[in-house]
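Problem statement: downstream parser choked on a complex file, so we are re-checking the raw output for the fe (iii) ion run. The parser issue turned out to be on our end (a line-ending mismatch), but while we're here, posting the original submission so the record is complete.
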Amino acid sequence: MIDLTKIEYFTEATSVDAVVGRNGPGAHKRLAEVWASLVKHLHAFAKDIELRPEEWDLAIDFLTRTGQLCDENRQEFVLLSDVIGLSMLTDAINHRRPPGATENTVLGPFHVVGAPEFEMGANISLDGKGESCLFEGRVLDTDGNPIEGARIDVWCDNEDGYYDVQQPDIQPKWNNRGIFTTGEDGTYQFRGVKPVSYPIPHDGPVGQLLIQLDRHPYRPAHMHYMVTATGFEKIVTHTFVGSDEYLKSDAVFGVKATLAAPFEPNPGGVTKWHSPFDFIMVPAGSAEAAE
Ligand code: BEZ
Ligand code: FE
């Protein structure tokens, strides 16, 4: 007969040890580490707020609806990660760069692999809508040397605040997208439109959450960039229109002071606006590794 009084059962006080201690010796090492921390913090959270059953039911229902909305075109869980700041925190932990190097920001759900490749100077605005803008600058290493062969993948919304993939029946495919490759001097130049601020998709559970938190769903106007070059760490970032009203309250916390770019009037130029910005790349593998 087992003496049941000698067994450490799950109690409010022993909850973390009871769950974490259940792992066997064959548990995956990193998963066990992540699991132990997750259980510790989640149990502390439940104890801290004295979680009520009806609140936990609500949370399970919220997470269920979040998952049910996900398919190949809509990723509601990524949106949840974005609005809770976890996307940006994960990015920050994994892309610690020296001062002066271009900072990363959130990738977002609207990048599409395989955009058309253009010659420098090409116009990526295919619908002709919006205020024209010349984007130009250099891709440099941290010593100021030009990087040849850097691929600059760019994408942004149109004048109405939508990406082409959100309006496949309205916008031309690949509208406001393109890939440019630098030559020997490391410079880039392309024409497009001045981006406008837009709301993240907010017709689902994440949008309802924002309403309940009295938060708006807007992102400040930005141009997306993914810059890759052999021997350098990939940059996934945006330049923000430096005068945007949502810079201080980006729904996904993607703004960094160094990414606010000038959007200047361009009198006499072929475009209405001019936005200069240099990208500074660090050597691959030089980012401080997360322990
Ligand atoms: C975006 O900038 O495209 C984006 C980022 C996070 C969530 C939604 C959109
Ligand atoms: Fe965006």
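For whoever reads this later: Residues 97-200+216-290 form a domain with the Protocatechuate 3,4-Dioxygenase, subunit A fold (CATH 2.60.130.10).
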